[in-house]
Amino acid sequence: MEVVIIWIIYFVLLLLSLIYAGVIIYHILKYRYDDLPREQGQYAGRALALYLGLGGLTLLLSIVIALFMILF
Amino acid sequence: MDEQTNQSASGEYLVYRRHPVNLLGPAAFTMLAVLLIIIFVAIIIATGLLPMPDALPFVVLYVGVLVFLAISYFFMYWSFWYLDIWVVGEDKLIDSQLITFFVHRRSELALRQVQDIRYTIPGTLATVFRFGDILIQSAAKEGSFKLMSIKNPGDAVTKIGALVEAASRVKFQASATTMPTVPLGEKLVQEGLISPADLANALSEQAATGKRVGDILVERGLIKRSDLVTALSSQHRIPEIDISRYEIDKSAIKHIAYEIAKKYTVIPVSHTNNGILVAIAEPSELVMSEIRGMTNLPIDFVVADEDYIKEAIRGHYLATDEGTYYSG
């Protein structure tokens, strides 16, 4: 039972953090070319890619390591 | 990155954003959060305080999400900082601010309406990192614009001032020919504020009573007085101001006599670089030329609400220290 609760809390936390990230991504994509000069808009796009890469890698690594520990 | 000069098809423009020192707080908070997570995990592993024997994979999963949240927190602040900009072009200042998520504010100010630019350096941190707040005061109904935490504010004020001066020169040249090309009534119809039938009725009443079309339409409740001011501004191609929110420069008042101010419903509101800015209720070439001739000063005109001008005339000419009014 405890394990189920921990899994549920984890998935809720993961969902909330993904929604949070989605809102940030939405705003960058929406406003980066509104008033920013083109090259600054492109820079914002690169920063977004860096954030997604770093954040995604963190999540993915934690999931892979945890799965590895559970399975083996 | 906090200031950049760019070229567009129409010319040079400046982009300002807050000094990067504003990101120090969120960056420190993020690093502290990650550090605390690592210390917490290290402690519970080292001391064997795990709630369940096989809880280590869950610790890893939770650490992954929490670190991801910490990174997201910092990136959110970065995006707010990066997307909050002030763009100063050849003819306008754009204030584009992401206030919170889903609340974006964008304001524009014509540079020719700028009356004063000043800056303050608020405190020790600002002095050390050489940034300050720039206040741009305007005669426009948009009021003042504040550019916060701008790097080297002195240089920025000089650059913006040069653009304002250039825009003002263009305005002064343009202001010599402000003959309306479209009658006021037609302008209001074009802008969809009244119907052609409303205009026809108003013109009939004008023929019968001699009142002005704009006043008739306001009296009938078909347009607001602010619509009338905007239409006059557009018709004569001169800026409008909200005089009720404008601090009138008392030293400018003396350039136009009370009798003239009352007769033509005009009031000087401030000094410009080499002349004065005069608010007028009913712009016309004849009146504007006459006032220019009387003062021998370069005069920039702006349109303002007639009621507010009358109130300002009463307040500023009749309420001098001596209890008399300025008379030419």
Describe the protein's architecture and organization.
The complex is a heterodimer of chains A (72) and B (328). Chain A is mainly α. Chain A has one domain. Chain A is built from two helices and no strands. In chain A, helix 1 runs antiparallel to helix 2. In chain A, 21% of the residues are buried. Chain B folds into four domains: 108 residues, Pleckstrin-homology domain (PH domain)/Phosphotyrosine-binding domain (PTB) (PH-domain like); 63 residues, no CATH class; 58 residues; 89 residues, GMP Synthetase, Chain A, domain 3. Chain B is elongated and about 95 Å long. In chain B, a hairpin with a 4-residue loop joins strand 9 and strand 10. Chain B has a five-stranded antiparallel beta sheet. A three-stranded antiparallel beta sheet of chain B has the order 6-7-8. In chain B, helix 1 packs antiparallel against helix 2. Chain B has 328 residues and is an alpha+beta fold. Classes of the chains: A mainly alpha (72), B alpha+beta (328).
Short description:
The complex is a heterodimer of chains A (72) and B (328). By secondary structure, chain A is mostly helical.
Features:
heterodimer, A: 72 residues, mainly alpha, 2 helices, B: 328 residues, alpha+beta, PH-domain like, 4 domains, five-stranded antiparallel beta sheet, three-stranded antiparallel beta sheet, 12 helices, 11 strands, 22% strand, disordered C terminus
Estimate the helix proportion of chain B, in percent: 40-55%
Question: How would you name the oligomeric state of the polypeptide chains in this document?
Answer: heterodimer
How many domains, in number, for the residues of chain A? 1
Major sheet size, sense and barrel closure of chain B: 5 strands, antiparallel
What overall geometry of chain B do the principal axes of the alpha carbons give?
Answer: elongated
Counted beta strands of chain B: 11
Measured by DSSP, the beta-strand proportion of chain B falls in 15-25%
Please provide the ordered H/E string of secondary-structure elements of chain B. Answer: EEHHEEEEHEEHHHHHHHEEHEH
Domain module tally of chain B? 4
Looking at the structure, the CATH topology of the largest domain in chain B is PH-domain like
| Poorly predicted residue ranges of chain A | none
Radius of gyration of chain B: 28 Å
Could you tell me the number of beta strands of chain A?
Answer: 0
Low-confidence stretches of chain B: 321-328
Helix and strand succession of chain A?
HH
Provide the residue-averaged pLDDT of chain B: 83
**CATH secondary-structure class of the largest domain in chain B:** Mainly Beta
Task: Figure out the total of helices of chain A.
Answer: 2
